Structures are given as C-alpha cells and as structure tokens.
Queue: 3 jobs
Job 1
Amino acid sequence: MRTQVAIIGAGPCGLVLGAMLAKAGIDALVIERKSAAYVLGRIRAGVLEQGSVSILEQLGVQARLNAEGLPHGGFAINFAHRSLRIDLESLTDGKKVTVYGQTEVTHDLMDARAAAGLSTLYEAEDVALHDFATATPSITCTHNGQPLRIDCDFIAGCDGFHGISRASVPKTALQEFERVYPFGWLGVLADVPPCDPELIYASHERGFALCSMRSMTRSRYYIQCAIDEDLSSWSDTRFFDELRRRLDPEAAARVVTGPAIEKSVAPLRSYVAEPLRFGSLFLAGDAAHIVPPTGAKGLNLAMGDAFYLAEALREHYGERSSAGIDHYSARALERIWKAERFSWWMTSLLHKFDQHTAFETRMQAAEFSFLEQSRAARMALAENYVGLPL
Ligand code: RFL
Ligand code: PHB
C-alpha cells in the first residue's frame, strides 16, 4: 500500500491529525493496534479547552459536542476546609472549558472518518517503522493475518506513551525529561448525578480528590492512592466513603453513590521527549509527552500537537515549503513545556506527598492562601486551565 502520511495510533491525536489532513486533501492511513471497541472502552479525559472545541468545530464534528457537552465557567479548589472558586469566565475575558468525554470525542472522530470513507486499519499487529531517517520510510504490520507494507512520505507517531514510534528512535537521538510521582489516582465512573454542577479539586490531609462528571447523570470521581494500589481491595462503598472524607462536608453530603461502571488506577507522571522529529518521523500526543492529569491537559495537548503537525504538512504539500515541518518540534515543545509546568504546579499544590517536610506543607498552604488573596494569581491559573493559545 502507499499513502502520503502513515499515522500510527487511533487515539484522539491520530484521529484529529487524520481528519485535518483529509480536509487539506492529504492522503493518510491510520494504523491502530487495538480494535475500535477497545479504544472506545478506555475511560480517560473529560475536559476540553476552547481551542480543542474549536479544532473539532473546524473539522465539522461538533454536533454531539454542542448538544451534549457541558460548558463550565468555573471550578472549585478545596484546601484545608476552605473553598475557592476559580471563575474562569471573569478571569479570562469569557473563556470556558467544556466537559465532554474523550470517549465521545474519539467516537465522533471515528464516525466522521467512516462516513468520509477514510480507512483505518484496526487490530494491526507487529507494527514496525522502517527507514524514517530517509525520505522513503515505510511501515510493516500484520493485518487480518496478512503481512502488509505501507510506503509513505511521512510517519506520524501518535501511538501513546507505550507505543512503538518513540521506542523505534535510537536512544542517543532522544533527550528525555521525566518525573514520576509517588502516587496514583484511583478513578470511578458511576451513573449517578454529580455532587456539584462544577468540578471540585480537593486537597486534604488524607490525599487529593477530584469530583468530575461526564453528564448530569454520570459522575467521574478520583482519589489519590498508592502507586501500586490493589484495586480489588476497593469496594464501591470503601471508595465513596474515602471520597466523602476528603471533601468539604456540604459537597460530601451531596455525593450520590452507585455501582462503579469502571474503576482503575492511573499512575502520575511528567515526561517530555525532545525533539519531536527524526527525519520523516514526527512524534505527537502522549507518544511524545505525558502530564499528570491534575491540570486536564493531556488530551488537549495531543489535539494541539495534531493541529500543529497538520498545518506543517499542509505547508509542505500545498506550498512546497519545509518551514512548517522544520519548525514543528520547536513550536509544539514551546507550548508543551508550559502545559508541563502548569500540570506539575497543580499536582504539587494539591497532593499529599509522604516525603514532604513541614516546610513544603507550609509552602502549599501559602500558595493556596496567595490564590485566595490575589486575583493576578487566580488569573494565571485560569489562563492556563482554559488553555494557552495555539
Ligand atoms: P492515546 O489516547 O494513548 O492513543 C494512542 C493510540 O495508539 C495505539 N497504539 C498503537 N497502534 C499501533 N501500533 C502500536 N504499536 C501501538 N501502540 C499503541 C493505542 O492503542 C491507542 O489507541 O494517545 P493520544 O491520542 O496522544 O491521546 C492522549 C490522551 O489519551 C491523554 O493525554 C489523556 O487521556 C490524558 N488525560 C486527560 N487529558 C485531558 O486533556 N483532560 C483530562 O481531563 C484528562 N484526564 C487523562 C485524564 C488520562 C488519564 N489516564 C488514564 C492516563 C484522566 C486519566 C485518568
Ligand atoms: C475527568 O473528568 O476525567 C478529569 C477532569 C479533570 C481533570 C482530570 C480528569 O483534571
């Protein structure tokens, strides 16, 4: 087979890139290791920045998002039995975020791809990248039991943190920056109304908790847990009891419990690989970087990378200029590092770190107190939370 751009991974990054390239008249093939159902079964992000919403609008996949997405003009931070509302709208000249699950974004992009007759190879096994240091790269895989070779001009590695793309780059060509946090998040999805119409980020001496949602009838809750937490020891009752202990009493009283329809532990990590281009191979999304979920940035960054990369490739094919692809790495990294900083900052402010001394605990308290007191500090938080410009 031959295509102009071979995209590895049908997560939000690969699907947004595929849709943007199709819109620009560039031929692309998406190659995914898992089945479509498996990809849709992963419960992940829930908060879209305005820039991400606008990317989906430009792609014409906004119908369900507009009908079912929940605009949020603010959220609360609970800290040491105090509550602070971050009024995103007034702090950012009217910007909001939209609560709409990553599963739904993926679903909409998959449907649009199928409707446009664009192909995705699901359940592609043993995907391997070849000759990406040259201008004639290729990909091999096994599909429906048949060996397949795809020749292309470029490879977009959108295959997530554990994908094959970054792993195919010689270690010596890659600089890696990493912080692994000594805890995880235990998440529960349940068909119960959320305890509050807005998100609540709670810092508590027992550990962090987050109240989020997917709709007004489906809640998503997280609590900070051990990195090697044993899921089987967490009954639904134990989870909700622990969640309520970490919330302020009014919010706790409003928590409606119900059977978990999903329960999982996610590790927390900050990670960046540099650069994002190796000859004909580009890395984008979680394949290139990871943020801890506290700032709700991972999905949005993945869509931002896809946007930059699509623009670069459009310049290459449409204007015969290599400026875009030459600058993709630096341009994307500039924004990525700011989201890394913000996610690290929010994680550091709100979690309980066992190794913290009394000094660091006081620093967290002073940071929160400064947020309460300073509109400028809240503005900086809000500016980052709604998303820095693309
Ligand atoms: P994905 O979604 O991991 O997709 C990568 C795809 O590549 C496939 N793949 C391969 N395909 C072919 N060959 C191979 N060898 C392959 N290896 C892997 C995989 O099967 C998969 O389909 O990466 P992408 O597209 O870069 O998207 C990134 C986002 O998924 C991620 O950043 C977010 O989910 C992070 N995240 C959040 N981000 C937000 O913006 N807002 C949030 O509120 C938010 N909450 C979260 C999150 C992530 C979480 N977890 C579980 C890590 C909450 C949680 C709990
Ligand atoms: C979610 O709804 O899954 C969610 C929301 C906000 C975050 C992280 C996850 O910061």
Job 2
Amino acid sequence: MDDQVLKSHDETARDILRANDRGGYTVPTAGLYPYQWNWDSVFAAMGFATFDRDRAWRELETLFDAQWPDGMVPHIVFRADEPSYFPGPSVWQANKGPLPSSGISQPPVAATVIRLLADLDPGRAERLFDPLDRWHRWFHAARDPDGIGVIAITHPWESGRDNLPDWDKPGDAIDVSGVGAYTRRDTSLVDNDQRPKKKDYDRYLALVQFGVDRGWDPARIAAETPFFVADPGITAILLRAERDLRAMAQTFGRDTAEIDARIARLEAGHERLWNAQAKAYVSRDTRTGELAPWATSASFLPLYAGVTARKAALLETLDGFAGAVRFTVPSFDPRSDLFDPLRYWRGPVWAMMNWMIADGLARCGEDTRAARIRSDTAKLIRQSGFAEYFGPVGAEPCGGGGFSWTAAIWLAWGLSDTKEGPC
Ligand code: GLC
C-alpha cells in the first residue's frame, strides 16, 4: 500500500509545511504561489507552533523583515527570483522596503496569532510588539485617512479575498485602457473555472500600475484612486488584532492609550458597514457610499472582533448560508445568483476563514454553530486533502494542493480529534 495512505493527517500536514518551507519562510503552495504571502505566513506559523516552535517564530520574524519604513507589511515578499510568477517584482516596482515586495498589504492577523503564541516565548513576542504597533497605525493612517473607523482596501488583493463579487461594481470605475498584453501564470496551473476572469485580472493590473505611477505613496493613492472600498473582513481582523495587541501591551507594561483610541474608532466604525436588508456587515464603496447588497463569509467576522450588537441577525444569516450548502462556511451567499461554488472567492470554503468565524462564534457562546464549522472543515480535508479551498456543495478540492494554511489550520485547530467516517 502507498505510504501516503498510511500516514496520519497530522503527519501529512506537518510534511506539507516542511515541504513548503523555503528556509525561514513558507510558500503557500509550490508552483502557484512561489513567494512569502503575508497572512498565509501567519497561519503557517500557527501550524509550525504545534511541532517546531522556533520555526513558528522564524516565520513571523521573516515576514516583519519586509516591513516598510512607513509601517506597512507587504502582502507578498519576493525573496527569491521566480520568473514563473506573474505579476512579479518588476511589475510591482515597489522598492520602498528592505526587501523586494508588493506595494499593498493584507489582513493583519499577526497580532492575534502572536498573542496566541506569546506564552511559548514572551521575549520573541515582545520584540514583535513595536513592528505590530507600527503596522496597525499604518492601516489607520493609510486606509482610513479620514478616521471614520472602517478600513478600506486599495486593491482586491489587499482584502485577501481577491475576486469577491463585492469588488465588481466599485471596480467598474477602474480605467483598464493602459493595461497592455500580458501572460497570466495562474491559469496554466489551475483550472480556468476556479480562477478570476480576464476582466478582473485587467483591473488588478491597472491598480498595480496606478500605485506604481504614484510611487506607492499611500496618501496619494487614498486621495486619487477610484477603488477605495471599506472591507468588513480587514476591519474586523484589525479590530481583533488591536485587542490582542492591547493585551500584549498590558503584559509588557506598555501604554495602551493610543491602542484604546484605535479600538474605539473601529468599534464605532463597524456600524457604517451594517446592511439591515442583508442582515450582515458588508463592504462599502467609499467613493459612492453604496453598501454591498449581500453577505459574505467576512460578514461574520465582527463576532471574532468582539462586536456582538447584531449577533441575532448575523446568526440568522449564517443559518441561511448553512441551510443552502453541505459544508460551511461558503465565502459568498449561496442564495445569491452570483454564487459560483468553485470559483475562487465567489462561493468556495476556506479553512482559515472557518477558523476565525468559529472562534468568533465560540467567544460569544455559540458553541454548536462553532462545532459544525469545525467539523465541516475536518470533513472537507479528510475527504479532499489539503487543498487551497473547497466546494461547499460537493467538497471538491480546488485551487492549489498541498496548501500551507490548510495544513496549518488542521494542526492548530486539532482537527484530528474530530470523528472519522463518512460525511
Ligand atoms: C490568493 C488568496 C489570498 C492568498 C494568496 C496566497 O491570492 O486570495 O488570500 O493570500 O492566494 O495563498
């Protein structure tokens, strides 16, 4: 019998992290994503922490090695030259940090994970405190320059939820006429039906060019970009991260006044994203003031951030999602016409989103719902392996295989404790 078959899922998950290790940092998956990605690395660190603590800290430290002088921690760190990846460093031309990188950020889960791991090595956690604080401050200044308490993204990739339907309409304002011919790499590695369409890709590249033309100056980008969309995902993730940073500040005897002010601003700002018809926190096009008409998996993250005022309505929406699929939590409302179960962020399930959503539910006493999400995540992985994401109806493994964050969530969430057997 094949060795793979005999291996436990825990062992396979550890092997995936080891195989994706490029020496101090982990690639999300070989081939499709050959560099260090921001939130992927942070989740990878959670996985490493279950069997190699030193390696977990290295993952976090190497990410912060790429922090820009203005505080931004980039979404991709181009540590090695990988001509197979597009768009690479020569397209981004973002040379403002100590290492070649992209010019945008990604959801700041780091403070939350560092707090979780802090007991393992308080000294290493404390050394990351100031870099975290500077990064959070950067988010407020660069992505909420008017101080309204919601964090905007300047590129769909900054949300980490790349081709969500939420970005379609605000994206109509992006001028793509200057995007010349280009060759994508992703569609040669993954089925076309599971990746963004050409129209979306043109917009992605136009926004990169927009940043290049403004020297990646966040103030100019915020003032001039047609695409500045308040994102409930990044806003909730930052709010939770601020609370975790505050807890660490207390442990390390630091002043918390500035963090308290940032927390208060984000708590108040959340209400701007509430859509009463959709019964969800949704994205908001800051240029037009328009709220998205539907819920997404990030609509539930305010619970993870400790915003519970709308809990009953959110649970109703979550139950509506759950009733329409076999495996929770789909990334997009499965009752919408735009639901596309296998296409990237338009329907599939992601393990790390599930971990955050379930954490939020458990924190506000919703243990049964949290347990369903945990058990669905385990079933998907048992049935379909450590894929990048999964079909919420048929459990199809989608995107890249041998994926770091899926393996990490398996380990960190202790999913081998869940019951074996058919779904
Ligand atoms: C895709 C995802 C993003 C992730 C990256 C690497 O771009 O949308 O969230 O960080 O892949 O896995």
Job 3
Amino acid sequence: MGLAFGSTNGQQAWEGELLLPAMSLKEEIAKRRTFAVISHPDAGKTTLTEKLLLYGGAIQTAGAVKSNKIRKGATSDFMEIERQRGISVSTSVMTFGYGGKLINLLDTPGHKDFAEDTYRTLTAVDSVVLVIDCVKGVEEQTEKLMGVCRMRNTPVIVFINKMDLEGQDPYSLLDELEDKLDLNVRPMTWPIGVGATFKGVYDLHRSSLRLFAPSKTKVERDAITVSDLKDPLVDDTLGMDPANTLREEVDLVQGVYGALDHEEYLRGEVAPVFFGSAVNNFGVKEVLDTFVQIAPPPRPRPTDAGEVRPEDPEMSGFVFKIHANLDPNHRDRLAFLRICSGRFERNRFYHHVRTGKQIKFSNPTAFLAAAKSVVDEAWPGDVIGLFDTGNFKIGDTLTEGRDFQFRGIPSFSPELFRELVNMDPMKAKQLDKGIRQLTEEGVAQLFTQQPGNKKIVGTVGELQFEVIRYRLEHEYGARCEFRQVNAYKACWLTSDDEQALEEFCRIKQRQIAEDKDGNPVFMAPSSYMLELEERENPSIVFHTTSEFKTAVVDP
Ligand code: G4P
C-alpha cells in the first residue's frame, strides 16, 4: 500500500489506497503537511487533535485518541504510563486527508515528564499548532516548547481554547503571547464575549460571524456573512450591546494588528491566532482550513554537508524517536524515521551513516490513526516505523550511500540528575548494556564522570527514574539505585581555544562529565555558578543544548 490521494475535492480526499497514477516526487512533496499540536498539559491538545482527526475522517468517534492519553493522576503508577505509552504508538503519527492535502499529525506526549520526547518530535515537523488555555494563558510548558520551535523558526498557528470558560480578556492574552513567547501575533478571528456571554467569533478577514452553540458532537454551523460590521444583521444576530462592543473592539484590533503576511509566518516571525472551544468543536474548522492553506510543505533540512532539499532524488531521513517493546520476549524496537528527501522504498538497502552498515527494511509501517500498516514507499514529510534490533540511536541518518548527518536534532539539558548505583555486582554488564540501550531510546541521558566511571542519569521528570529502575530490573535483570547529585544543568562545552577548554576541564574535573558521544559537559551546580563560570571563562561557550553529534562507531 502507498500513501496516496484518491481525489482532491476536499475533506475525504485521501483514501489510503493508490487510486491515481504514480505522482512525481514534486507532487508528493507539494501534498504533504507534517505538523504537531503542542500545549501545556490540560490546555486541550488531545481534544483539538481528536476534532482535527474527525474532520479528516481518520477517526469516526470522539474519544479514540483520548483513551491513549497519559493521565496526570497516573504519576504514581508508572507501569500504567508505560502501558499507555505502548498503546499510543498507534497514535504516534496520524495521517489523514483534508482539503487536498495529506496531513501527517505527529503526536506528542502530554505528560511533562516526557517533555524530551516532545522536543525531539518537534525536530521532525514542519510547523505546529499551539493550544493556549484562555483561563491560564501562557504556561511554563508552553514557553519551553516554543523555545524549541524558535530554534528552528518553526511556523506556528495559535488556537486560544476554552472560550466557553471565564478566561482572560483577549487583549491581555495576545500581549502575553507576544511578551512571553516573543511572537508577533495576528488575530484572524475575534471573540464576541467570553465565558457565559461567549457568543462566537467574528472573522476579521472574511467579515463573517460564526455563532457559538455548545455542542460536543455537532459539526460547526455555517457562518453568517455580513457586508461589514455596520450591517444591521450584526445587531439582529448578536443584540445591540454585544454588537456595539464588537464594533469597538474590532476597530481597535484592526488598528493594532495588521494582516497576516504569509512569508513572515513561514519564517516563524508572526503567528495567526484563532479563538475557539475544542471540546465544543468551535473554531476548529477555521484552524484546519487555514492550516491547509498556509502551512509549509516539507522544507529543506540542514546537514553537516550542507542543506538537503526534499526534491533531491536520493532518499534521506533521520530517526527522531525509538519506541521499545516492553515485552521482554520481543525485544525489537520501533524506530521512527522522518523522510527528508527522495523516495523511500521497502526492501531496498539503505546506508546507515553512523555505522556504515547497509540495512533494508521488509516491514516499514505507516501509522494510519489506530492501525499500523506496511508501506511500499514513503515520501518527504512522511514518518515511517522501522523495526529495529538495536542498530539505531536517536539522531541517526539513513541515506542511499552518501555520508552526511542531519543536524538540528539536539539533546537538551536534562533538569534532574541522579547517580546510577549498581546494587548487584554480578550484573554490572547487564546494567551497562541496559542503561546504554535505554538512553539510546531517549528515555534519559547518560553522562560519565571520572574517576571511577560514575554514571549520571539526567531526565526531565522524576517518572523516568522509576521507569529506568523498573525496566533495568525486568528487561535486563539488573538492580540499581539512584543517588542525589548536585547538578542544575548539563552544559556542553565548546571553545576555539582548545588549551583553555582543556585547562577548564582539568580544574573543574569534579564537575566535568562526558556525554554518550564523549563530548565534554559541565555539570553546573547552580544557575549562579553557571553565570560565574561563563563570566570567568569568556573563551568557552556553555551550551544547554547539543546536537546529537553521533560519533562514527564502525568506520
Ligand atoms: P491536553 O491534551 O492538552 O492535556 O488537554 P485535553 O484535551 O485532555 O483537555 C483537558 C481538559 O480540558 C479536558 O477535561 C477537556 O475536556 C477540557 N477541554 C478541552 N477543550 C475545552 C473547551 O473548549 N472548553 C472547556 N470548558 N473544556 C475543554 P477533563 O475534565 O480533564 O477531561 P474529560 O473528562 O472532559 O475528558
């Protein structure tokens, strides 16, 4: 089966079967849109995702995605989380057709302890939809996620959700987006009231009113088109007072924010903003319609040998996520490959750049909502699952033979650090192998400190330590304990002055470790100490993110 379009007449265009004669690489690229929905937990990411999938015909009933969600309350029960993580493989990539486009929606875990998974998924998308809770505004995780998007200038569409609740006023929400996320916003719709008085939105560019009716199932009602806001139909529809308030507000808004410039959006400089209520299916269609109009197709990607364009005929791609099978009898893992150029074919040998091996895949899978299915080919923008017996690390590149590595798939400094202590001296080898494999999967990062080969594990959440302890014991038969380590950030070090770097590493030996590829890392004990060292060592750069500089293992 190939990923292809049936017809191009709107919503159900994609049929999942090859109905048209083969399209050219250029046409395949032009059809694809690969993106992720991101938000602080609870803002409505899962709900919005589900509504998008309903529009795309990828799921038939609400609740299909929701049941896979890792719940907040599950923090104490990490096995439940792992179980759900297993199920959620099927929603890792959701492919659907809409408006003549083939859309790959990459799921990101909502749980904050899995934030690193989300950061990495963001390296595989071409744009994002950011969901904001209108009551809570910009939250901590929103800022972090947008920080990652900013590193690659990822274009953003903002959806301000839960307008049926008593939220903040829309001006302060827009101000907050601009201030905290360093994002220029362009409201596309304007809310009429909020919470109990929320009546709908006015489309600032199409001069139309869309009226709100709380409904969890119905598809949105048709918009009412008005000649302009002076149209008496506005008063008839909304009532005199709300109509006048809307006129004043729209006047003000149009004076402050200009029209959306597509190029600026594509450069990640400005973001269109929509107001709505995902759970009530309100405002979702506008977002989707705008998305298919403006979101970028697969874009060129940087490598250490220059840029790779999607139109380049030779296949290339990178692994951004590895999913382990929790069943100890089936150790194979699923590596997620984002295709960046050319055409991927089943049963064809590809060059694994890091190890120099030639590998072919007989069962590459596509993820079609709930079901996985084998694909014969895939195109730039697509994500396929490759069964892996331990060849892949996150960040690995596959090509048709050329030796280059994709860049822009960095590790981020973990936020929690613990020393891994072996509790069973007879199982040192198993522990070593286990922690190496788990960190290759991206469960956590491993740093080694001398003397004594001290293993420091870094994560973004407490939960990962539980997961690691459990998996080491159940999958590798190794018991471990975690000890507190006094570290606040891991900073990768670079310098043009090699001597200065060596000297710094020598003096600070107790706070220096190596990452998995042997790069020197400074374990800053506090933000104060980090600033101090930065001031005192101006020739050294302290990075809180690193590229996955995968060293060549088997040249
Ligand atoms: P997340 O993936 O970003 O974590 O958020 P999720 O979609 O799970 O939504 C979090 C909660 O917010 C859910 O309620 C959901 O129903 C609710 N929600 C989403 N959109 C809206 C909206 O437009 N208005 C209102 N009022 N609520 C919204 P829950 O009680 O946690 O879950 P559930 O029992 O409703 O499923």
